[in-house]
Specification:
Radius of gyration: 16 Å
Structural class: alpha/beta
Shape: globular
Distance between the termini: 23 Å
Order of helices and strands: EEHHHEHEEHEHE
Strand content: 15-25%
Largest sheet: 5 strands, parallel
Number of helices: 6
Strand order of the largest sheet: 4-3-5-6-7
Mean pLDDT: 84
Length: 192
Amino acid sequence: NLRHDPQRGMYLTPNPAVLESAREFLLDELCIPASFRDLCAVSWCEGGGTGALARAIQYAISSYKDRVKGKMIVQEKGWPGYPFLAKAHGLAFEETAVDLLNPPSDGMLVAQIIHNGTGLRIPRFHWDILAASRASFFTPTILDIPYAGFDFADFALPRAMQYSVGIPIGLFLHHNTPVIIAWSPTKIYGAF
């Protein structure tokens, strides 16, 4: 029932039940606990992973402008498109260590679940430290999820997603840290 509206650049559905069903499916895939779902805003965008990340940046800027402080912080040796997205959104650009242990506290952090420059899977205790430290400043973190599930490809999809995204997301929720998830399922479902 989705139809494309080229004037507005988006897909529209006349059926709110379809959108609610899609929202619940997405929250299930991302392992969002039921107790947090009422706090989740879901926004559908075009452009695959880049579109999802751009939408997440726009949301962070509009919702946490005083906390973003005009700066986007990313892991070094990451995706080469990050500096361009920062510039397109009027943000200064800064890099931090891949392991995420001591990122700057001022500015919006974009953290990759799996670092696509090195393939590093960030250890659970690093996510816990990061989520706790970001909570103390109430600074937003965008979790960029470019290859959800591939890091645990030996498992069935639900378990792979729990380990890949459920643990980091759950730690941010546990620490009551502002977290914005940029995810496009194109890679996990083999659509390329």
